[in-house]
Amino acid sequence: MNNGAVLEVRHLKKYFVKSAGILSTLLREQRKYVAAVEDVSFSISRGKIFCVAGESGCGKTTLGKTILKLLQPDDGQIIFQGQDITRLKRDSMRMLRPKMQMIFQDPYESIDPRARIYDSVAEPLMVNHLVKDEKEKHNKVVQTLELAGLTPAENYLYKYPHNLSGGERQRVGIATALILDPEFIVADEPTSMLDVSVQANLLNLLQKLRREKNLTYLFITHDLSVAYAFSDCLAIMYLGKFVEVGPTAEVVMSPIHPYTKALISVVPGINLAKNKKPIVLPGETPNPENVPPGCRFHPRCYCKEERCTMEEPVMVEFTPQHYAACFVQEKMKLKKNGK
After folding, report:
1. 104-133 pLDDT per residue, tens
2. pLDDT at residue number 1
3. Fewer CB atoms < 10 Å away: N or C end of the chain?
């Protein structure tokens, strides 16, 4: 166990069964599985922001939901504050829920459109029996709404979601996560559906809450410029696996894996500073139902070798705390070191 780690994930796996057609069912064909999360390991120290980035469909959201046990893992371990919660029973897990919360991506879907803001934010308190009376509930809701930047709170308590802007709705989502005083939050692309100016305000809010409440975040995004500005550690995910992990500034400014290099090369704010041409990857992301053999990135890789098509690379430490899974880069490292 990493000392000071709030969360440690070891070889986590999550599969989904592919829906079978009528003919496949009649013929009793073998079930096919989609590996949404495949052998993922990492840890997050208290008060840090660990960011997972990658293209849509790479398994980022599934990873976050599996860690919170909103989806049941198929293999591996999830250790929260030193306790293995992987196979924890429902009642025991329910006692831990207040400490582990999630901010969802879509502020238009995550809030009940029929409920007032007051009722939506207060609901977790009622479900977990954390308030004694109406006055305590009211004070807690007001306090949390203002903590999320909705001030004065009284102006929002009895409104419905359709009366609010996208940014205000997302702040309600943040308040709903904060109401239980969590220690760990999974933030699933919380700014992706918002205007740039609103994004900046919300990211500043999340940073402020981290400092004031010593929160730990797993932050999921497809926007590497947001990851660069916001996180301490960055993991690049491709087809259910991490291909590179390290301190955010080092991963962004000195990427190792070809996929990471390609992603960063098309981020204007970062790439302009490096004055390099964008790397355009050929083809499309492979179907997760049929992951290529060997390195799963090799069909699109611009520097692959024959070995890449047959063997799957493992994570290698290139510089302190900076890991990547790439045979070609590993060989270049060994050559550089004279081995």
Report:
1. 988 778 888 999 999 999 999 998 888 889
2. 44
3. C
- What is the SS3 assignment for 210? helix
Counting the structural domains of the chain, the total is 1
**Dihedral of the alpha carbons of 286, 289, 295, 300, in degrees to the nearest 10:** 0
- Of 203, 111, 116, give the one whose Cα is nearest residue 153: 116
For residue 9, give its domain range: 5-21+29-336
Question: Are the beta carbons of 217 and 187 closer than 8 angstroms?
Answer: yes
300 pLDDT higher than 50:
yes
Measure the CA–CA gap between 118 and 156, rounded to whole angstroms.
Answer: 8
Alpha carbons 313 and 262: distance in angstroms, whole number: 19
Preceding amide of 152 cis, omega within 30: yes
Average pLDDT, the chain: 89
- State the CATH number of the domain containing residue 164: 3.40.50.300
Please, which residues bridge with residue 324 across strands?
244, 316
Question: What are the backbone dihedrals phi and psi of residue 316, each rounded to the nearest 5 degrees, phi first?
Answer: -125, 140
